Amino acid sequence: MAKCSKCGSKAVIKVPYARMNLCERHFIEYFEGRVAATIERYGLLKEGDSVLVAVSGGKDSVALLSALAVVASELRLKVMPLHMHLGLGVYSDESLRVVKEVSRKLGMNTFILSLKGVVGAAIPELSAKSSRPPCAVCGLVKRYVLNAAAIEWGVDAVATGHHIDDLAPYALKNLLLGDMEAALKLAPVTAGEEGYLARRVRPLYEVTERECLTYAIVKGLPFVKTSCPNVFLGGMDALIRKFLYELDLRHPGVKLRFMRSLAKIAAKSLASQARVQTELTRCRYCGLPSRSEVCGFCRLTERALGSPAGPKVREALRSIRVSSR
Ligand code: SF4
Ligand code: ZN
Ligand code: ZN
Fold it and tell me: Within a domain: residue 235?
């Protein structure tokens, strides 16, 4: 059994690009330090910021919340976790149970939003009635609700638990397909616009999936062990993911260098982000960003349920915030 490179006790993980084996204690220190360093390196958050954290109950978002709780005390951050119950059967019920448990453990007050409770339909129903795949509907709903919550609650940023193994395959795929704009959206930070579009940050940008899992286990954090019934791991995405995994095994750190380069290009093209945003307009129904007269969420809910649900969601978020004061 390998020994910790720092103290000589039993190692729980090998961190190839750092050329270290680490024990539980030193790995926790390493992981939290890496999240803090990522926040600093890319200027994700500053002292006194309020940050909305999307918590699904999976290992990544739970690891993010726990590491942010540590960073928060140093940076005096106000961390506001939000969980969406998406109505995906027992998977969603289990996710809610875990989120409540982890919130208790970390001493945090997590805001809960039930999609069915607010718009009258959950993901399976919205998917069936709009004839769109569940994951496309789910992605759109989550992006919309997170942005709406950030605007209603006036936070400085929205943080999501995407790690390097989520982001690098999509970045490479978009580059291979020639979609530079989509690749740049996978940067550690994307610009926002006050009262309209939330600034999004990714504090797990430089940690791997394996590190998130190990951190959640050694910290004793509860997390959902099953996958969503709609998860699909196949096609080009899976091939690229496997390729990057094998490449990084043979050349440790190559994935990180790739994502750091992407972050540099994205930082230089903040001007182009601004240009993309000027192509956005305000949705006729809910007033949030849209590429056409009606935003994707209002269009989806209007088609599936007969009326656009954006205003209802904004209203519900406003009242959650007020009732929690
Ligand atoms: Fe949503 Fe499940 Fe699809 Fe993930 S796999 S986007 S949780 S429906
Ligand atoms: Zn050690
Ligand atoms: Zn709308």
Answer: yes
Kindly state the average pLDDT of the residues 45-72: 96
Q: Does residue 9 sit within a domain?
A: no
Q: Which residue's CA is the closest to the ligand 1 atom numbered 7? A: 228
Contacts of 307 by beta carbon, 8 Å cutoff, 6+ apart: 301
Residue 21: half-sphere exposure toward Cβ, Cα within 13 Å: 11
User: 185-217 burial, b if ≥16 CB within 10 A, otherwise e?
Assistant: bbbbbbbbeeeebbbbbbbbbbbbbebbbbbbe
Indicate if the pLDDT at residue 62 is higher than 90: yes
Please identify, by atom number, the ligand 1 atom nearest to the C-alpha of residue 138.
Answer: 1
Q: Is residue 22 part of a domain?
A: no
Backbone φ and ψ for 190, nearest 5 degrees, come out as: -125, 140
Domain count, the chain: 1
Q: Which pLDDT score is estimated for 279?
A: 75
Q: Provide the pLDDT for residue 270.
A: 67
The boundaries of the domain holding residue 116 are 41-319
DSSP string, 106-119: HT---EEEEHHHHH
Tell me the pLDDT band of 278, cut-offs 50, 70 and 90. Answer: low
pTM of the predicted model over 0.90: yes
Position 155 pLDDT exceeds 70 = yes
Measuring from atom 8 of ligand 1, which residue has the nearest CA? 135
The pair of structure tokens assigned to 67 is 């590491």
Judge contact between 184 and 269, C-beta under 8 A.
yes
Residue 283 CA: which ligand is closest?
3
Within a domain: 36: no
* Mean pLDDT of the 110-130 span: 96
CATH of the domain at 119: 3.40.50.620
Of residues 210, 173, 170, 203, the one with CA closest to residue 188 = 203
Question: Atom 5 in ligand 1: which residue has the minimum CA distance?
Answer: 231
Q: Please state the atom number of ligand 1 nearest to the C-alpha of residue 134.
A: 8
Geometric angle at alpha carbon 44, from 52 and 103, rounded to 5°: 30
